[in-house]
Amino acid sequence: MYKRILDNLNCAILLFDRDLILTYINTSGEILLADSANHLVGHSADELFKFSDTALLINLKQSLAMAEPLVDRALSVTRATHNATINFSATPILIGDQVNEILLELQQIDNHLRISKEEQLLAQHNTARLFVRGLAHEIKNPLGGLRGAAQLLDLELEDPELKEYTQIIIAESDRLQALMDKMLGPNKLPNKKTINIHEVLERVRHLVHAESSTALKIINDYDPSIPNIYADKDQLIQAILNIARNAMQAMDGKGELIFKTRIHRHMNVGRKRYKLAVKCDIIDNGPGIAASMLNQIFYPMITGRAEGTGLGLSIAQSLINQHNGLIECKSEPGHTVFSIYLPMEGQ
Questions:
Q1: pLDDT in tens, 296-326
Q2: Which class is domain 193-343?
Q3: Predicted TM-score (pTM) of this structure
Q4: Following DSSP, what letter does each residue of 67-100 receive, concatenated?
Q5: What is the dihedral sign for C-alpha 200, 203, 207, 208?
Q6: What value does the mean pLDDT take over residues 125-130?
Q7: Mean per-residue pLDDT of the chain
Q8: With helix as H, strand as E and coil as C, how does 248-289 read?
Q9: Domain made up of 2-108: CATH architecture
Q10: Checking DSSP bridges between strand 326-332 and strand 255-269, what pairing results, if any?
Q11: 257: number of CA atoms within 13 Å, CB side?
Q12: Closest Cα partner for 190 from 33, 347, 2?
């Protein structure tokens, strides 16, 4: 029972013996150290934290030597695949006057910053979507009247040259109507079925390959152990295709595009926490996204290309939101990553 409680804590719990050999680590600790308990238990603290902030080991050994609790903040934990910033708390467990074990709590604080960013991103997207939907509805009403009047006028006119003008009005009205429909985003609920996420990505890969030149290299980096998910296949194809096309256009059809999948544990979307999520990364080595635009790219009508509509990423975010998921983006010159998170809880 205690193990189940510890495994559901958000902070990493590590238990060391008096020789600072790891004897227990919970699930959050496995995630923080990016390794399984089977591989980590039995290793010394010196081995586990040899690339991390030196203050971490110093504090741990000091707490053990003094037999007193010790806390520290904003320390860096470095592993082979990632870095994390943590708050540190060491508590010696005494039997009589002797320290028998030492309990280490590591609270990942950059994860809290990420959660706040997710909440802000969702709130911004919802606000922008409500504004755009209201604006689109206000435009569509007079637009319908304008088109209807042009049709009636077209019936009254006999001169073919004058009819040409009314046909232009009707055609442009239809074009604006289509644009408003796109701005309103998905107009139907997802038709969810059990699907394989790699079938979706392979479909997108084939579509992008057909649209691109031979100068574009497409690489797959899939985790075959990912189970099927419950989702709308067509909506996921549309969302991922929008991102992949943006990447292809940013690279002018030449460069490297990577589709990558992994299982992501303990995922937060807004204020809800999921034990498991599928993470799909679309990675390109294009010029990157300007820092001034990075926080706005999911807004409708925001684009860095003169010929772009600025709707592709907004629609993609809406489609993924309908699956209780989220799209995030990190970018620097030569390396842009769009990460799609699709929670698996309840699926």
A1: 787 766 665 555 556 778 888 888 888 888 8
A2: alpha beta
A3: 0.59
A4: TS-EEEEEEEEE-SS-EEEEEEEEEEEEETTEEE
A5: positive
A6: 64
A7: 83
A8: HHHCCCCEEEEEEEEEEEEEEECCEEEEEEEEEEEEECCCCC
A9: 2-Layer Sandwich (3.30)
A10: unpaired
A11: 29
A12: 347
